[in-house]
Specification:
Blueprint lengths: L8 E2 L5 E3 L2 H18 L7 E8 L8 H13 L4 E7 L2 E6 L2 H15 L8 E8 L4 H5 L6 E2 L6 E8 L1 H22 L5 E8 L2 E5 L3 H11 L8 E8 L2 E8 L1 H26 L5 E5 L3 E7 L4 H8 L2 E8 L10 E6 L2 E6 L4 E2 L3 E8 L6 E7 L1 H11 L6 E18 L2 E19 L7 E4 L4 H13 L6 E8 L6 H50 L3 E2 L1 H29 L4 H33 L3 H32 L10
Helix pairs in contact: 1-11, 5-7, 7-10, 11-12, 11-14, 12-13, 12-14, 13-14
Length: about 625
């Protein structure tokens, strides 16, 4: 190991004769590549608006973007440029304020109130890295929200829909319990209203038997069960208490959080933040997001599946619904035998026979059992797959005499498949009859997990420094002043050797930034703290080496003292850096978020500082004092 870090070949009396040329070649290559891959960080990105097609048939062409840019300039917003890429259209603007104003104008222009969203308009940071650097794979380092920003979303969870959906599930649960006991009820009078659900019967005796069956499941303090007339017939009403409602809302939020985290993980965003805000909102921060339009489209996309049997001849009319399918009407049983909530994995594929798109689905244990129980006795009967999609629609309402936009969620259902059950189905099956895009979307959404309630974006922006531009500026000035003082101290105290240490220290920062850029590590404020600590450790290594050389110069000539100083300080420096590296790796293993960011930067910094402080500085010292008969050194 000491030989790799620059130990020279020795002459007969211990004086250095030469350093192997390959060491200079390695050092020159590392410095050159470090400068090349650190260079993109000198080109700050532009604020931009990214536009992608959602439900529109119109293509994103350069002419279309040019028209939009002309309208924005007419509205007083200067445009830097436009471009069309695989990720959609990009309109570059000057700053964050122009970005916000342009986003509002484009939203009004492309997505009129009361209509489905035609285009996704997302805020982004567009790269300005020259093409020749991109050609060699050089990209700027990913910065966290507290330094450079990224996409920030605040989503409102529709709690009324979450409660309504949960109570509807409770009604179905009651029906199943009554069917098992062969207690007949009136389907037309079953209803969910607010925090109550009601069921009616033909006679009071049937109602009393039903209460005996369900009262153990629906008891206080979560529920209050009362006997009342429902629609003029004997029945009961179950009122859900506030504590249970809060539990339902909390469960819905947690399920949505899990689903969103799964979706964002599939987007490949570095160190995202997904957390609850208050009672019914979720905050999402996507630092350094590369495709915020795609992220936005998939974050607020809500879809699910329902599996229903085709109506049988003996089904009552109240149990049958009519659905359009391929230009005709089909009768389906209202009872849902399974939903997408039980899907554990979904992948887009191709039908091996027809080559058409399909989605391969795997269910959890409970879902597999339910599916088998429903299909085993109905072989030869047809089963429908219903695709459910929640779409966000903007409407206008007059509030205090002013016209204000209001979000509304519109649910759309359609039958996407109606096939004959040819064998009892279990945990694995496939869905056909989809387009390529529908198959991709369905596989993604099912794989990420179902959401308990619809959501819509109420706030979106490109985030600057979370600590404020003034604090960030002062922090950077403080770092620069501290770095300059260290450089000045090294030059004053160690003369030429101090200058060499400063060169090595600067190269250390360049290589550190290059490595983090190549590894796509996210730099945050805690990461900057890791860099500062790395600088301190690199300076400490040089101080140990130079102090040891000074001691050796008292009894040896410079040609012997310099290599002896490096060799004898090496083990001390290695021990200190290895123990710190172990701590950094432990933090990286058990930590997350800012802690992980600090650990990553520190780990990389330790390795680069070892390389520059020992390997690099030794080569530079040898270039200046590598002559066998040197008599005086400036240290």
């Amino acid at each position: 190991m000491p030989g790799f870090f620059g130990g020279p070949n020795r002459g007969r009396r211990g004086a250095p004769s030469r350093i192997a040329p390959w060491r200079y070649v390695v050092f020159a290559m590392v410095v050159t590549l470090g400068g090349l891959y650190a260079a993109p960080n000198l080109f700050p990105p532009d604020f931009a608006l990214q536009i992608t097609v959602d439900n529109s048939d119109r293509d994103l062409t350069p002419e279309f973007l040019a028209d939009l840019a002309y309208e924005l300039e007419a509205g007083g917003i200067p445009i830097i440029g436009t471009e069309v890429s695989d990720q959609g259209g990009l309109i570059r603007v000057s700053d964050a304020n122009d970005q916000l104003q342009a986003g509002a104008l484009l939203q009004e222009r492309l997505n009129p109130l009361g209509e489905e969203r035609q285009f996704v308009i997302a805020f982004n940071l567009a790269s300005t890295t020259p093409e020749w650097l991109r050609g060699v794979g050089a990209e700027p380092m990913t910065l966290g929200l507290d330094l450079r920003g990224g996409a920030h979303f605040v989503l409102q969870v529709d709690m009324e829909e979450a409660v309504s959906k949960r109570l509807a599930d409770e009604v179905e649960k009651i029906k199943d319990m009554l069917r098992e006991e062969r207690i007949r009820y009136r389907s037309s009078d079953n209803a969910v209203q607010g925090n109550t659900l009601s069921v009616s019967f033909v006679t009071p005796q049937l109602r009393d038997r039903a209460i005996e069956v369900i009262e153990d499941e629906f008891r206080q303090p979560d529920y209050v069960l009362e006997t009342v007339d429902v629609g003029g017939r004997p029945g009961f009403v179950i009122t859900v208490q506030d504590a249970k409602l809060r539990e339902i809302e909390s469960s819905a939020i947690e399920q949505n959080l899990t689903g969103l985290r799964n979706r964002i993980n599939q987007l490949g965003v570095a160190e995202p933040l997904v957390q609850r805000l208050g009672r019914a909102r979720i905050v999402i921060d996507l630092p350094g997001v590369q495709d915020s339009a795609e992220a936005k489209r998939k974050i607020d996309k809500i879809a699910n599946l329902e599996f229903r049997l085709e109506a049988a001849a003996n089904d009552r009319p109240s149990e049958i619904e009519q659905w359009p399918y391929e230009g005709r009407t089909v009768d389906l049983n209202k009872r849902v035998i399974l939903t997408g909530d039980h899907v554990t994995h979904a992948a887009q594929g191709r039908d091996p026979d027809s080559g058409l798109p399909q989605v391969d689905i795997k269910l959890d244990s409970r879902g597999g059992e339910m599916f088998h129980e429903a299909t085993a006795p109905n072989i030869g009967r047809r089963m429908a797959v219903i695709f459910i999609e929640h779409k966000s629609v903007m409407k206008a309402e007059i509030v205090d005499g002013e016209r204000q936009p209001v979000h509304e969620t519109r649910e759309e259902k359609r039958v996407i498949s109606l096939a004959t059950i040819r064998a009892a189905l279990g945990y694995n099956f496939r869905i056909t009859g989809l387009s390529v895009r529908e198959a991709q979307e369905l596989a993604f959404l099912l794989r990420a997990g179902a959401l308990a309630a619809p959501m819509y974006i109420v706030e979106e922006r490109t985030v600057g420094a979370s600590l404020g531009e003034e604090n960030i500026e002062r922090g950077m000035i403080a770092v620069a002043i501290g770095f300059a003082l260290v450089l000045a101290f090294m030059v004053v105290y160690y003369k030429v050797f101090g200058l060499i240490a400063n060169v090595a220290l600067t190269l250390n920062l360049v290589i550190l930034v290059a490595v983090m850029s190549v590894l796509e590590a996210t730099l945050t404020l805690p990461g900057i703290a890791g860099i500062v600590l790395t600088v301190g450790m690199a300076v400490d290594a040089n101080v140990l080496i130079f102090s040891r050389i000074r001691e050796e110069l008292k009894s040896r000539p410079p040609a012997q003292a310099i290599p002896a100083g490096y060799d004898r300080a090496f083990l001390t420096i290695l021990d200190a850096n290895v123990t710190t590296l172990f701590v950094a790796l432990i933090l990286l293993t058990i930590g997350s978020g800012p802690i992980a960011g600090f650990a990553i930067t520190l780990s990389i910094g330790i390795l680069t500082s070892m390389f520059t402080a020992i390997f690099g500085s030794r080569l530079l010292v040898h270039l200046i004092y590598g002559r066998p008969r040197v008599e005086r050194v400036w240290i």
